[in-house]
Structure prediction request, 377 residues.
Amino acid sequence: MSSPVLFTELNTHNGYRIGVATLNQPKVLNGLSLEMCRLLSERLAQWEADPDVVLVIMQGAGDKAFCAGGDLHGLYQSMQIHQGQDAWANTYSREFFEVEYKLDYQIHTSVKPIICWGHGIVMGGGIGLMIGASHRVVSESSRLAMPEVSIGLFPDVGGSWVLNHLPGKTGAFLASTGAILNTSDALFSGLANYQVDHASWTSVVNALQASDWQAPQHRTFNDDIVHAVLSAHKGKPAEAGPLQQHYGLINEICAPADIKAIYRNIALLKDSEDAWLSRAAATMLKGAPLSMALGIVLQRKALHLSLADVFRMEYIVALHCCADGQLQEGIRALLVDKDKNPQWTPSGIDDVSEALLASYLAAPWPASDKHPLSDLA
Prediction:
């Protein structure tokens, strides 16, 4: 049986090596499982410590996706088993989010350059892998989103930190609507920082192998090699995408301090003649009101936190989402029964109180225990 993650090493012409990690579940759009997270973390640590490895490339098998999200089926089964129990009872969700978030943080803090080849669909857990990479590359067919509002979760995997650092109020809008970004908007927002056409990817890898690398401690020099290669193969600039086109409007409607006012402002777009805006509003209206509010609250709380503290905060909230029935209902409606008719609780934005939101920030473990992510720097 083939491994869910394939690891290979490419030789450079001057004696160094490039590590390549390929997510190998193309039939499920390279959805990220707990096993895949463990495999990636272990190999990335090995490459980090290897003085002959100068660069890591992450990519997805197949032509459709780098990674379309996390292992929702596994989480759903664990929530069924622990239904009605408190947030600390679900041992699978505790382990899954701990391993996934530590992997994401590991990528963010790598001492070596990491290229993420974000060709095709990059969503949810895939964004978590991509945003920590030093060189985030999209192709002409890339589609990026954090659509957790549709399943009763929130933009996690560091999303509270990353979305908070996007231009203007775009982070609040994307968290609320799960709106899909094309290549142009991925670059405009900063979620990606390079574009390479799919047909040129092999040439990029060949050029990286042919480059004159220095030892890993010369990080700046090696970063410049990657930059030069990606820039030399950059795709043709696309016209401004819908996020950029509607940037002023998004800043205006997402400016209120009152989250319910933002919800109502976005809801008014459902009748817009612009298909991207109307779809974004429709997604929010169909999604979980609590998830929409959590997405914005966590961004605001993350504003002055370190990345490690953001992951620690998100971990607590994710466990509560696995216990409150919302995420279970969202996965049921989307992937299990596939009726696409989730019954949310609360059912409306007016029923999302500040006290309810605050309850999701309370650590669910015994007071004497350490945070499972306490070892993050």
Remarks:
- The longest helix spans residues 91-108.
